[in-house]
Amino acid sequence: MKHFNLAVFPADGIGPEVIAASQQVLRKLEQLHGGVRFACREFDWSSAYYHKTGAMMPADGLQQLEAGGFDALLMGPVGSPAIPDHITLWGLLLTIRQGFDQYVNLRPMRLLTGVATPLRNPGQHPINMVCIRENSEGEYAGVGGRLHQGKAWEVAIQSIVFTRSATERVMRFAFDYAQQHGHRLVTNVTKSNSMQHNMVFWDEVFQQVAAQYPTVATDQQLVDSMTARMVSQPETVDVFVASNLFGDILSDLGAALTGSMGLAPSANLNPERQYPSLFQAIHGSAFSLVGKNVANPIASIWSVQMMLAFLGETQLAAQLMHAIETVLREQCVRTRDLGGTSSTTEMTKAVCQALETAAR
Ligand code: IPM
Ligand code: MN
Prior knowledge:
Layout: E1 2-9, H1 15-33, E2 36-42, H2 47-53, H3 61-67, E3 72-75, H4 85-91, H5 93-99, E4 104-110, E5 128-134, E6 138-147, E7 155-161, H6 164-180, E8 185-190, H7 198-210, E9 217-222, H8 223-232, E10 239-242, H9 244-257, E11 265-269, E12 277-281, H10 298-310, H11 314-330, H12 344-359
Parallel strand pairs: 1-2, 1-3, 3-12, 5-10, 8-9, 8-10
Antiparallel strand pairs: 4-5, 4-11, 6-7, 11-12
The chain binds 3-isopropylmalic acid and manganese (II) ion.
């Protein structure tokens, strides 16, 4: 019996609904495959927890998670209209990303059969892009400050931090990922035309790392024109590596191009497994949808799929991906974001049913 310890954070907004859906899928996998067990410990760290305690998580939250011996963390979206976003995000998600050195944010953006893209001419080639986002520093380093608040001479500084070690490791991850998953091209997303220090450095490191992977083709794209390329020629985009903020922006674009924010998953990885990695849909907490049972659970379920792959459960991961693909291809069950009227519950049931059918 394989046993995995998961820390589960339903978090905010539609989080509890999509996380419940994800856990239902895990239960179904256990039921169908006997040999695996996912022990989920739930944590109520969230905006509601903030309202109760004045913090998003206990002061020793990271230590608690470390002591828990978790194999992975599964999290719902974080953010509430009642609390400034920088408080909720720095209070939980960003602290975990940094504290657990989850330096890669892996974001596949694949147009699945049966899902409509807003692009008029999607081209003959399937859209299959992978964003590898630096997740530990850069624009999100959290370095800076404000002086003379409220005064006419107020100063606000948000410093961008690029280190050689962090830049190198995320680029190496991108090339390794490309090699291991049969991708041919790694695109360096940059802005070295205007940012003559950090981004020129970023390009140099990219060249140095690329030289160690002679079989992988590379190219370079300025981030602004990358948005145009993703829209006009998405079939030319394969794996790309981007800084923290650029990757954040491009992955929302990628999610929209591949059908819906309601489908897009992500993995915050510590590839060396010194710390647990965190899996989370990239969409927000969507307070307008809360309690209506209309949120698309696929982004969170697909994140579970990425978790299974990272945990080495290759077969379960393949089966879950197949189930997601089947449900979307058959188009019988579609949530609101996909132009349908199905509920969260119906979508989850459909995925579980597809798993069951495939297991027979
Ligand atoms: C994401 C989110 C976060 C980010 C926010 C909520 C801090 O947008 O995971 O893409 O910018 O990384
Ligand atoms: Mn984002």
